[in-house]
Amino acid sequence: xxxxxxxxxxxxxxxxxxxxxxxxxxxxxxxxxxxxxxxxxxxxxxxxxxxxxxxxxxxxxxxxxxxxxxxxxxxxxxxxxxxxxxxxxxxxxxxxxxxxxxxxxxxxxxxxxxxxxxxxxxxxxxxxxxxxxxxxxxxxxxxxxxxxxxxxxxxxxxxxxxxxxxxxxxxxxxxxxxxxxxxxxxxxxxxxxxxxxxxxxxxxxxxxxxxxxxxxxxxxxxxxxxxxxxxxxxxxxxxxxxxxxxxxxxxxxxxxxxxxxxxxxxxxxxxxxxxxxxxxxxxxxxxxxxxxxxxxxxxxxxxxxxxxxxxxxxxxxxxxxxxxxxxxxxxxxxxxxxxxxxxxxxxxxxxxxxxxxxxxxxxxxxxxxxx
Length: 371
Fold this sequence. Notes:
The chain is an alpha+beta fold. The protein has two domains: 2-46 and 152-228 and 329-370, FAD/NAD(P)-binding domain (3-Layer(bba) Sandwich); 91-143 and 230-321, D-Amino Acid Oxidase, Chain A, domain 2 (2-Layer Sandwich). The protein is 28% helix and 28% strand. The chain contains nine helices and 20 strands. The protein has helices at 15-26, 63-82, 101-114, 124-130, 150-163, 211-216, 292-302, 337-340, 355-370; strands at residues 2-11, 31-34, 51-52, 86-87, 91-95, 120-123, 138-142, 146-148, 167-169, 173-180, 183-189, 195-205, 230-239, 248-250, 262-264, 270-272, 277-279, 312-321, 333-335, 345-349. Strands 1, 2, 9, 10, 11, 12, 19 and 20 form an eight-stranded mixed beta sheet that branches. Strands 13, 15, 16, 17 and 18 form a five-stranded antiparallel beta sheet that branches. Helix 1 (15-26) packs parallel to helix 9 (355-370) and helix 2 (63-82) crosses helix 9 (355-370). The radius of gyration is 21 Å and the shape is elongated.
């Protein structure tokens, strides 16, 4: 059995895990990232809408509100610095009927409390001038929303990590973690079931869908500090055609998700989603084509002239959710010594949307805790 020692181990090479590793690498901290897949970002981080969110919906003082608004600015700066494919498309949030106008007023108020800048109400006529295909009664224009190529973004993080001499170990599944005098002994299995022991001073669990599973493998961590993770599958449908739409188009949020919103691709084709479908397996990525008619019905509310016969299944993603019952209370969970009393251990749970947008801000927050 091989044995290695390193200052800090991060479990999970998704956008957030990589962002944390990059931040620590820039600080000169010896860091190893363990990833169970054979490449970075293969799960949640590459199966999302690729939206740079503004932070308009989240409750006051929530981690999502804080990290999304700050992370929005960080990610644009990072994209410009490293020439990463992105576009500041802006977002139009539409009220499709008069009853929804009060809702967008409340969303505008919450967004401004969160620190989102320059939101503007649009009349039906103003929306038509911007997007002639969109049907609505009123709308909000959110200038800081945009799109990004998540893979290019994560690849840039990997580049900075490796440039600073740190490593990402793929095909590395964490089997068991032991506490040893405020340090950690991690047993890691590779693709061939060979076991390696890694000793480290600090441990950051950023395993996304598998964060609760990883935490349960930490000997000495009381299970009362480990939330149950639910799996919210989101299906996406796309139309491989340029309709001349320039903004992200979002309906009013309904139920658990944000509705079947329109997201632009870099080539100006469009996709819709995600919806919310609760699944038992974190590996069920088949698009549920039975949802197509539901998508069509929702899309026609704000894009009545779109030829929905062109709609085809695209892909699906799964979000880790720790509060299935109360959407208003759903937030990122970052559990450290102040919660569970285990020194130098940080567990990240429920990092769903806007995790990609928030990643660089979360990384800064985590690094400050480690200083």
